[in-house]
């Protein structure tokens, strides 16, 4: 696994640089930038994990929260800069769908093939269900529905208000989970950590984190500029590129670790990664992008298209109802994956 | 009970044949065809049950799954052949509403009048809730919403894709429940079976199944041709005929057995019948009809009207939230029945 | 607390009378009528409670049910009489949102600051979730969606039908909770009552109840007539006045008692007040107002605006999913309050 990541990065990034200078074709650049980003995301993930072990669960949680969606955030900022607001919203949708349906579905399926029934904390699942309803259903549906009879400026004001509230709640949630109610949550993450040895030292981790993040920023900018050509060449809509392609590239690292954990019969960690990442996208990445867009040529309101919104709502209700028994099996995984497939076909045909 | 069924069939079917030859009025034909089909459904149910006892739970489950909605499927095929796509979709809606609200409502009510609190498997209820969300909310809402900005051909392609996925998941679900995870589900069905004696021999059951199915096919064709006149005479819309009338005729047999079981304090079986039948309609009957319609003069996309869709979604959420405690009582039954009544009035006035 | 209530009433009501005679400005009248009503609601609440203790839990429950939303009902009747149907529907929305998000949110938050985790009956929460889905989602969504393709007269007929059903179910629910299934519900209310001494005698309670209700009726009429000027002066829409202002004035008494109980670590009572009041508004106050409006110059159909409906649906789903673990803490309170804030901003900007 680690070798693949190394190959992706050490052949991918140089090729991207070379391609930029030599002005290679967009399709080739699209492929090598995507692969490089996936590799770099692997390095960011490993560096964050090493740092988390060294600095204890509190700071570790914060680090995970901050760098977990760093790749996604960087790609989105460059896409915003290029004025492609539609793709940014679509890739946020894709992150939510990808985490809730694809990552969780493949984790449940792969884990369920090897182990008959896998258990995760019912308490955490119930806690998460409330947050998912708040972040996806309340915070995303309200601006959508209310904006229907608002002008652009008022819609943007509403989006800004909601974004500030979402970020505040996200920080309050970290405070809740890491300070006031630490012991309440499943000890699954802590139990192993005490015995675990970090892969890299603190210094090395920070250095790698810094370099990899810079590299992602550079490659993302290249990737974003291929979208237009890619869309024309393959007949893909902006929506499809955002929801499916960008989301898969931007979340590849999480996908791999969630599925690996499920096969190791640690499906509780898979759930934590998938749902945690979804909540982070909805309550942190999305509102931060709204605020950043205020300094960009084109502002982004928190208003998804109706198909995007409906896909996210139905995915949320499905996950909540499939995980309300604190157990998973291969068939539940298949259902989640099928839901992703159905939505994928829908976005492709749209 | 069995005597009534016999009378319905042995006076009903000959009258339908006579009426067809002598060209009787559509209203009279509507009444006698409906009653004959209810009777024949009773025979199909009993033959399936006898076969299930003889062949053990696995094949029995498969038989139930296949013949359970045979009547509904046959009526729908003839309605499709007559080009009345709207009535087919409405009768699918009606099956879902009828099973979830009317059958379950009357079962909870009748059972709850006799027994203060009735318990059913919470585990099965939670398993079913995930499937209901997938089948009704994901699979039906996505084509509806996405089709709003699609042309007819693309909508049909999306419907075909979703139908294939739904049938695959339905078969995978049978495999899951009957093969890989047999012991996991409540033993309620098995417990009694070992002591139960089949009503008919295997040979007799197959013969009756064959003849009754043929007869249903014949009578259904007659029934379908009365719809137009009935609608005009009584001022009923296509939607009302499909949602209320066809759904009640097509599911009468299930209704009777579910309520009977609830009164016998076996409300777990009532839930299994009502929810199982709903899932079968949504994940098997509906997609099969979409695929069959490809060979018909008029193709059917999986696109319901907004009122139909909203009625199904709200009914699903109501049932999931009423059954999340694994208990039922007369008041919960009354609530389900009232929801059916509210929707019935709505469809009547529409 | 009681002193504040006394001051509000004994300076407020005379000022309202004086102001009516001397024709004071609408803004001043709006403020003093609002404060008087809040004080009078406090008296009604205390009189109902005293009566409930004297007359035992059954009659007590009935009294609470009848006078609990008396203030709201009276304000609404006078608003209806003034032909402002939009404000009535908005204030019903505001009651639902206020109870589910503001009252429950502040209760969870205030209680959670003092006590780490607070427990309430999971059984009651599950029972309530089914009723909330029925009352808010089935009964309010169906007329909304179906009315889209109905004329005004048919919409009103549908509303009347649904209203009659809702009132019947509400009465059946009282019968269920107070007669057939008394022991099933959490004994929280009864446990204390036996030791509790009523504040006032039966005679005094009835007298106060009668006078305070009369006074509320008088002041409400004054209050209603200030709405138009208030809207113009502050730039508030009809929707905002109804959803936020009227709802807060009409429910102030419940707000205070729910939060007080939560701080006393009796969050089960807070949940009962907030959810009970919501159900009463949806299943009793709203349908009664529809029926009363038939004798008014302008009839009121049970058709909310889309933003109102969506706000109520999302609030309901949020509360159900946050309370499905039978526990509360400050962070859950914050989430509920944030949802209220998001919707409040939305209604303000609309």
Automatic annotation (TrEMBL), chains A, B, C:
It is a multi-pass membrane protein. Coiled coil: none annotated. It comes from the Bacteria. Pfam families: Na_Ca_ex (PF01699). The chain crosses the membrane at residues 5-22, 28-47, 59-78, 84-110, 131-150, 156-176, 206-227, 239-261, 273-295, 301-323, 330-349. It is found in: Endomembrane system. InterPro entries: CaH_exchang, CAX-like, NaCa_Exmemb, NCX_ion-bd_dom_sf. Keywords: Antiport, Calcium, Calcium transport, Ion transport, Membrane, Transmembrane, Transmembrane helix, Transport. The keyword Disulfide bond does not apply. Residues 27-178, 205-343 form the Sodium/calcium exchanger membrane region domain. PANTHER family: VACUOLAR CALCIUM ION TRANSPORTER. Belongs to the Ca(2+):cation antiporter (CaCA) (TC 2.A.19) family. Ca(+)/H(+) antiporter that extrudes calcium in exchange for external protons. This is Ca(2+)/H(+) antiporter. It comes from Sporosarcina siberiensis. The gene is cax.
């Amino acid at each position: 696994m680690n070798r693949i990541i190394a190959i992706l990065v050490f052949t991918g990034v140089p090729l991207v640089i070379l391609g930029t200078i030599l002005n290679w074709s967009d399709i080739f650049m699209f492929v090598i930038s995507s692969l490089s980003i996936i590799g770099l995301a692997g390095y960011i993930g490993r560096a964050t994990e090493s740092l988390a072990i060294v600095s204890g669960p509190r700071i570790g949680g914060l680090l995970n929260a901050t760098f977990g969606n760093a790749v996604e955030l960087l790609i989105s900022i460059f896409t915003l800069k290029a004025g492609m607001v539609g793709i940014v919203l679509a890739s946020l949708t894709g992150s939510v769908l990808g985490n809730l349906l694809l990552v969780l579905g493949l984790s449940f399926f792969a884990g369920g093939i090897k182990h008959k029934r896998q258990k995760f904390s019912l308490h955490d699942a119930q806690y998460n269900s409330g947050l998912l309803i708040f972040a996806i259903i309340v915070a995303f549906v309200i601006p959508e529905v209310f904006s229907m009879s608002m002008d652009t400026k008022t819609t943007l004001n509403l989006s800004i208000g909601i974004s500030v509230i979402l970020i505040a709640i996200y920080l309050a949630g970290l405070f809740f989970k890491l300070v006031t109610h630490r012991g309440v949550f499943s000890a699954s993450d802590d139990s192993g950590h005490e015995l675990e040895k970090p892969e890299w030292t603190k210094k090395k981790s920070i250095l790698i984190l810094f370099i990899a993040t810079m590299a992602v920023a550079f490659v993302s900018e290249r990737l974003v500029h291929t979208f237009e050509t890619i869309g024309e060449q393959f007949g893909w809509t902006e929506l499809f590129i955002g929801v499916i392609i960008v989301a898969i590239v931007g979340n590849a690292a999480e996908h791999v670790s969630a599925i690996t954990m499920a096969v190791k019969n640690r499906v509780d960690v898979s759930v934590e990664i998938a749902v945690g990442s979804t909540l982070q996208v909805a309550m942190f990445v999305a509102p931060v992008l709204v605020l950043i867009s205020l300094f960009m040529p084109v502002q982004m309101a928190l208003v998804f298209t109706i198909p995007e919104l409906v896909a996210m709502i139905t995915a949320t209700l499905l996950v909540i109802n499939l995980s309300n028994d604190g157990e998973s099996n291969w068939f539940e995984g298949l259902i989640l994956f099928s839901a992703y497939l159905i939505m994928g076909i829908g976005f492709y045909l749209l």
